[in-house]
């Protein structure tokens, strides 16, 4: 029998349960924006920040993004090439991570490159709002469509399913702000990797790492502590963990 590869990745499961360890990776400007107001600016981090993204992917069993991020950035959620696939092997992980796209209404553009490039398994998370025609189309474009709720995605159910069916122990979420917000709200983010880039984008409508309604009062904000900080060039690489349950009430 083939030996199971030894996993060298630290903290491979959530501290709280058998659900996957969920970590979010985002870059933001010094004024807290993750894109420009018109969404034309989709990336602003350095080459070091991009390497950081691939290094984090190389510790994850699955990488997930929201529909608008997938469309606008034309992301395919790949490994980043041979060097990072080798890193995955050293980390005791499969050659490629599972790729997950979230589209509750199923409105994601079927022409998005993720549906046509890359060989790693692709899952679409959606809800019953998607309806028959969209579901049928998404099924032809992906390896599996998981209907994870009637109107809203039930995240605990998704995490259980990913753990049981796909053996996901570390789930990396790469935004955007709407998807992150749902996970923060549910108190399901175990770790946040944040690159602060020395730019000011401005713009009232420019998104941040956590969109949606957000907390209306300070007591409902979730509290985090910085557990690691490094500076490379002009960028600050932070790792934060929730001090309590990480959720926004
Ligand atoms: N700087 C960075 O590190 C970074 C990283 C990622 C993205 N971005 C930027 O962020 C922007 C996109 O962010 P965004 O907040 O507008 O969009 P997003 O979170 O990428 O996508 C939003 C869409 O994803 C689906 N979705 C997300 N959460 C859902 C949930 N809980 N339940 C059901 N469906 C859900 C919905 O799709 P349907 O409408 O199809 O239902 C929703 O309209 C882009 O400009 C991108 O470039 C920046």
If you had to describe this structure to a student in words, what would you say it looks like?
This protein has 249 residues and is α/β, with parallel strands linked by helices. Helices cover 24% and strands 22% of the residues. It has helices at 47-57, 67-73, 82-90, 131-141, 155-166, 177-185; strands spanning 21-29, 62-66, 98-102, 122-126, 144-147, 170-173, 191-197, 224-232, 235-242. It has a nine-stranded mixed sheet. Residues 1-5 have low confidence and may be disordered. NADP nicotinamide-adenine-dinucleotide phosphate is lined by residues 26-27, 34-35, 39, 42, 65-69, 72-73, 102-105, 107-108, 153, 174-179, 182, 207, 211.
Q: What shape does the CA trace take?
A: globular
The total beta strand count reads 9
Helical percentage: 10-25%
How much of the sequence lies in strands comes to 15-25%
Main sheet characteristics: 9 strands, mixed
Report the uncertain regions: 1-5
How many helices? The count is 6
Largest sheet, spatial ordering of strands: 5-4-3-2-6-1-7-9-8
Query: Mean pLDDT score, rounded?
Result: 93
Structural class label: alpha/beta
> How would you spell out the order of helices and strands?
EHEHHEEHEHEHEEE
Please give the alpha-carbon distance between the first and last residues: 48 Å
Alpha carbon gyration radius:
17 Å
Hetero groups bound? NADP nicotinamide-adenine-dinucleotide phosphate
Architecture blueprint of SSEs:
Layout: E1 21-29, H1 47-57, E2 62-66, H2 67-73, H3 82-90, E3 98-102, E4 122-126, H4 131-141, E5 144-147, H5 155-166, E6 170-173, H6 177-185, E7 191-197, E8 224-232, E9 235-242
Bound molecules: NADP nicotinamide-adenine-dinucleotide phosphate.
